[in-house]
User: Which sequence fits this backbone?
């Protein structure tokens, strides 16, 4: 019996860990993500699996990653093939109620304007030295839409997937902290007090059924690369609205969403190894993600202010900020800010419309980025 | 992992110029899509008159 050799084998993990303190640092990063998920409730469904997966991926000689490691196998099967984000889109589609937008379609314009941050962050990333495709992948953090970020980053810069995903989900959770100061900076108190009408959100069933079908066809014809993104989102929505597949719609909203979220989070963590994560690029990506969210908010608010120069019935410019995809956080932030300025101002309905428009806008932006940068 | 270009170097400026073009096309594209969707919703609203739910 080679006792000394066996003991050496047992201790090799410990000695490797001591020799490579970056792995310890990554485990701390994983711990921080778990802490943020549990204690601060920051997107726990994603950040907790990513945090735990980060620990798994950074244990020396971890059998969870590598050629036959389950995390790597899942990554290759679910992320590189784009299967996991696509399945999540079905779940998201089944959760979205487009009624408020269908009653107030003008809000679609804010869903477009508030995608500005994607392109602004992309430009900034290029100036910092990232390649064209990496810049596009980083810019898409500004979509404020995790699955779209994963989908685009998986195609354009899979090596940056870890930090891009962490940035996207972290900043989505931080929308209530990021948006208010930007909005206050760009608007006057009088503008924040502009009242907007609430409206009846009832929509004919036929319209709700036709909407996802026609949107898919139009988006697909104009930008075929967007079919996977838009199509699966709208398929999920059709399940919800058709009225004869309630069981499937509920499965998509609950079981499918939960299962894929678990796999998505822990799988992304396979890219969170010390050598891939602990570098200057990660810091840049985290900073650029924040810039993207700020620019989105500014883009929406400034667009509303420009519109007000021409509109007879003024729009509360805060509504523009709700045109991002972080649903329903952004709408709630705007409602709360509106109430703070004027207790009788109820902005939830129009803000929700803009927020739903942002969900469509982010997917369209993802499709366009794929089409324009491929 | 790929190395970064030097920030603000001629290489990164060349990529930056490409991204400006993507930004212009992208923002115009998103607004165009949204205008089409807006028109679509308005048309559906006019054409389909049935009991709401």
Assistant:
């Amino acid at each position: 019996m080679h006792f000394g050799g066996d003991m050496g084998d047992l201790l090799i993990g410990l000695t490797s860990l001591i020799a490579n303190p970056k792995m310890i640092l990554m485990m701390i990063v994983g711990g921080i993500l778990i802490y943020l998920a549990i204690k601060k409730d920051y997107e726990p469904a994603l950040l907790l699996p990513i945090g735990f997966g980060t620990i798994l991926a950074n244990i020396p000689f971890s059998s969870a990653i590598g050629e036959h490691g389950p995390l790597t196998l899942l990554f290759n099967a679910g992320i590189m093939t784009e299967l996991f984000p696509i399945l999540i889109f079905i779940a998201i589609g089944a959760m979205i109620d487009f009624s408020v937008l269908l009653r107030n379609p003008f809000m679609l314009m804010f869903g477009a304007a508030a995608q500005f941050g994607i392109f602004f962050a992309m430009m900034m990333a290029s100036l910092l030295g990232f390649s064209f495709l990496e810049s596009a992948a980083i810019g898409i953090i500004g979509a404020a839409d995790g699955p779209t970020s994963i989908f685009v980053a998986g195609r354009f810069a899979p090596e940056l997937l870890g930090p891009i995903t962490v940035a996207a989900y972290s900043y989505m959770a931080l929308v209530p902290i990021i948006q208010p100061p930007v909005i206050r900076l760009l608007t006057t108190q009088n503008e924040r007090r502009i009242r907007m009408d609430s409206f009846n959100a009832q929509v004919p069933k036929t319209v709700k059924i036709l909407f996802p079908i026609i949107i898919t066809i139009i988006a697909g014809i104009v930008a075929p690369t967007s079919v996977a993104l838009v199509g699966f989102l709208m398929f999920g929505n059709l399940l919800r609205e058709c009225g004869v597949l309630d069981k499937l719609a509920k499965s998509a909203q609950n079981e499918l969403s939960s299962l894929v979220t678990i796999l998505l989070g822990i799988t992304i963590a396979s890219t969170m190894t010390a050598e891939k994560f602990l570098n200057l690029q990660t810091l840049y990506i985290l900073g650029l993600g924040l810039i993207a969210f700020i620019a989105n908010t500014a883009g929406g608010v400034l667009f509303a202010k420009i519109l007000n120069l021409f509109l007879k019935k003024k729009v509360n410019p805060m509504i523009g900020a709700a045109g991002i995809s972080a649903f329903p956080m952004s709408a709630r932030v705007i409602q709360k800010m509106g109430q703070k300025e004027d207790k009788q101002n109820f902005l939830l309905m129009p803000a929700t419309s803009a927020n739903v428009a942002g969900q469509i806008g982010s997917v369209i932006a993802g499709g366009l980025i794929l089409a324009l940068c491929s | 992992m790929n190395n970064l270009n030097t920030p603000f170097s001629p290489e990164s400026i060349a990529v930056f110029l490409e991204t400006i073009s993507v930004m212009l096309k992208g923002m115009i594209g998103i607004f165009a899509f949204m205008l089409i969707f807006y028109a679509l919703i308005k048309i559906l609203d006019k054409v389909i008159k049935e009991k709401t739910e």
In short: The CA atoms of residues 1 and 336 of chain A lie 70 Å apart. DSSP finds 21 helices and no strands in chain A. The longest helix of chain A spans residues 280-308.
